[in-house]
Amino acid sequence: MYPYVLFFHSIWRWFVLVSLVYTVYRGIQGWRRGEAFTRADDTLRHITATVVHIQLILAVWLYGISPLIRYFWANFHEAVHEREIRFFGMEHSLMMLVSVILVTIGSMKAKRQGTDQGKFKIMAIWYGIGLLIILLNIPWPFSPLVSRPWFRVF
């Protein structure tokens, strides 16, 4: 089960990144141009938050079955001194959770904002900060912290 969940978590990140990048772009564009916040913009806001939440579900599932995480908790005092184990056991998990919370708050605030400009601004800022945190905490192949391949296979 673990390799399959890891595969889907790895693949789904691309949906998260594409949807966040586009939503932030759309938020900045609408905010700067003074555009009307349309039903399509609201749907984009909602779909992006949903994509991020699906990734969270996969992440929690993965965290629960990962042998790396089991080792982290079983050997906590030694594991926190091992970069890769600590990264996945604490840093990656915590920062990704923070980003999901930021996107969720941004989605709720944008939905309740009274003006179109306010909706775009909130969406751009909150989703943008969430995206930045995600980009900094993905184990990219070039990451100095921990590297993983661009695409996982079974």
| Integer-rounded radius of gyration | 17 Å
Into which percent range does the helicity of residues fall?
over 70%
What is the CA-CA span between the terminal residues? Answer: 10 Å
Sketch the topology as an H/E string, one letter per element.
Answer: HHHHHH
**Class based on secondary structure composition and strand pairing:** mainly alpha
Largest sheet, described in full?
Answer: none
**Shape, per Cα inertia axes:** elongated
- State mean pLDDT (0 to 100 scale): 95
Question: What does the secondary structure layout of this molecule look like, with pairings?
Answer:
Layout: H1 2-33, H2 39-65, H3 67-74, H4 76-79, H5 83-112, H6 116-137
A few lines on this structure:
The protein is mainly alpha-helical and 154 residues long. Helices cover 80% and strands 0% of the residues. The model has no long low-confidence stretch (mean pLDDT 95).
Question: Your description of this structure?
Answer:
The protein has about 150 residues and is an all-alpha fold. It has one domain. Helices cover about 80% and strands about 0% of the residues. The chain has 6 helices and no strands.
Notable traits:
154 residues, mainly alpha, 80% helix, elongated
